[in-house]
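Handover notes (outgoing to incoming on-call)

Open items:
1. Myb/SANT-like domain-containing protein: sequence verified, structure written out, both below. Nothing else pending on this one.
2. Nothing else urgent.
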Amino acid sequence: MCKKCSESFGYVVEKSNIKNRIKTLKGTFNSYHDLFKNMSGYAWNPITRLFEAEDEVWEPLIEAHPNAKKWKRTPIHHYEKLFDLFSKDRANGEGSISAKEKVRRWEKDREDSINLEENIDGFDEFSMPNVESYSPMVSPSYSCETSSKKAKRTPQMVEMLEKQMEIFQSGIDNVAASIRQGNEIAKEGLAIMMQGHEFAKEGLAIMERGRPRCYSEDEVFSELVKIGIPTEHQLDVMLFLIKDPAKMRAFFGVPTSELR
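Myb/SANT-like domain-containing protein structure tokens:
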């Protein structure tokens, strides 16, 4: 799982990260699962991802459990998958058993099944021992009469483990795909923004080139002094150019001061 998560997300995911995340997911699931499992009038909506009910149904629940108010507006993502993973433990009380203990029990049950199959030919049909003590997974009321019943338990456990791994794998793949898709969408959006920015700059430059240049009185008077208009005529010339924008554009359109 560490290897798969690290490859999917592009950074190192440690065992402790996964364990803490599963612990958080399980704790959150237990909080709302225990709250709604025996309550009537509530329905899970897979579209809104909410437990929905009429207001008069919510009121007594919130009054009895104030923390329930947040689940009226807080979506629960992947509820179906979390239910498949954790609801059985909440139903049969196995939640108090650690994951390591479960694995040890499954491994012992598998080994006992193999040993039973290997030695079955040596047992007399009428002296088959009771194998309740072979596996702690077998309840006291269950007695193994044939090896086939015992041997079938191992494939079932393997199938259950494989199913849970498939659920985890599917969730990881979906999250990774969403992240990749989000990155691609963000990159495309950024490219569009940059392209739009370039178009805007080009359009502004075109507008600037097409817009008539407005010259201030200071610019006109400075140019008249520069080209040597006599002092007594400078004011008259400036007023003449300012009154006629076409003549002023023509004046400044001449490329050199000498020609002006």
